[in-house]
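G., the chain you wanted modeled:
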Amino acid sequence: MQLEDLSQNTNLRILTIKIIGLILLTILGIRLYHLQIVKGDYYEEKARNQQIRRIPIPAPRGTIFDRNGQILVDSRPTYNIVIANETLKNIDTEERINAYADGLGLDYKFVSERINFLKKQPNFETMVLKESVTSPDIAWVEAHEIEFPELRVEIQPQRNYVHKPLWHTFSVMLAKSVRHNWRSPNSKIFIPATLSAKAVWSSITTNICAVLTVIVKWLWIVADVYKAKSELFRRNPDKIWLRRLTLIYNSPPKANSPIPSPNAEQLFR
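Predicted structure as tokens:
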């Protein structure tokens, strides 16, 4: 029986191992280049979004009193149904859309747009699905808490106008009048047509300041005119035509009365 000498294949085996190792290192290098260079910005932003979490904190506004200490405007709690994105990406959204639309009385297209937009956001983002919900809506969310863990109810403060016919109605009517293109086309002073009730007061304040600025400018011009006229009287007290000119300008004009035309050289002599 002839024995086969395997020592002659050692170099071939070593060469094969080196080639395989080189191929593996090349694949790892290409993969590392793809992760660090090609997709580096994408994964960096994704890692940053997982580290930084933005939590909106509602800031309740203070109470407004009148001079007698009576409350005019305060804040009252309202309830909103929000949906979290943490568990939404791992489930079938079509079933969720139908369940949300039927249970909360929402439009199917509206719920679909909200969920599709939310799925593109980071995992910890939330979005309001329905505002100012009623007791049946809250009861529906609590009853389906195990089935829909991504839904929850949050409290949001809202302004409450005690004297609605006097304060709130006036603000709403003023905002509506502004929205109907309440503006002067030939003037620089105008109020834009699309403003909220909060922005109306800012626009009115700006317009009042502009009107006061125009009035001050006119008063300044009138003061300069009177100052110049006083200077003319001081320099030329014996000019009869100047006194007659002043009487003409300060009194209503008479029929067929000629207006004198003074000489500029005599005026400042």
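The mean pLDDT is 74.

Shout if anything looks off.
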